[in-house]
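Duplicate of earlier report; Helix-turn-helix domain-containing protein input re-posted below.
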Amino acid sequence: MGEELSTVFKALGHPIRRKILDILKSSPKTTGELNEYFPEVTRYAIMKHLNLLEEGNLVVVRREGKYRRNFLNAVPLQEMHDRWVGKYMQSTSNSLLNLRSVITENGGRKAMEKNNQFQIEQEIFIQAPREEVYEALTNRVEDWWEFRLAPKGVTSQFTFDAVPGGQFKEMWGGKAGAVWGNVYYVNAPEEIRLFGHLGMQGAVNSAYTYRLLEKNGGTLLQLSHTASGVIQEHWEQEHTKGWQYLLGTLLKNYVEKNDK
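Output:
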């Protein structure tokens, strides 16, 4: 953890790199698009800054043809918050979807974003073998997955059948329940793909993928989540924060604690 945080602090140590993160917070950008924000800086210098941010795991790069698209990965910042801030204050906002407040307070209806899609890319490093991380993501999800769709006060159980055609679902009260994801691709323990609304309402297509790479004696977990359709304005931000908390805090802590 100390070495990881040192790399993060180094990545945050230059104002241009901090500005790049501010820009990517709004939306992913290609390297060329980022360069336009800094007319006084060469493209080569921007590339060096991006490489340092990537080494600090604060930027995730996805290749799209000949372009390099850069995404903010806020998980390391969440880990810093958890270490120095989170344990000293009561959390009031850790929720993947804030489903009940959206449905009951807002009627599930808010203004739609100008864009009708979003894409979330995150990476976290877990100090544990890939097989153990995969096992926790699937067969042991009940042990760490915190968010529930069951009515308040009702106990529910999670199961994750990690085979093509299987489901990641929550059940309560006999026959009541919800499907969080339908599995359509499995290559254990390297990758698993699912589609599911994850609490979003209405005409929405949503899919998410876990990729697990062996790295430095541990596992680099890559999350990709895309959604399109009638996207409400708060959904991207809430899912981004929710994934950070679920994977960067709950899953990471659960696996690393049990691996000791």
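Residues 5 and 124 are 12 Å apart (CA to CA).

Merging into the original ticket.
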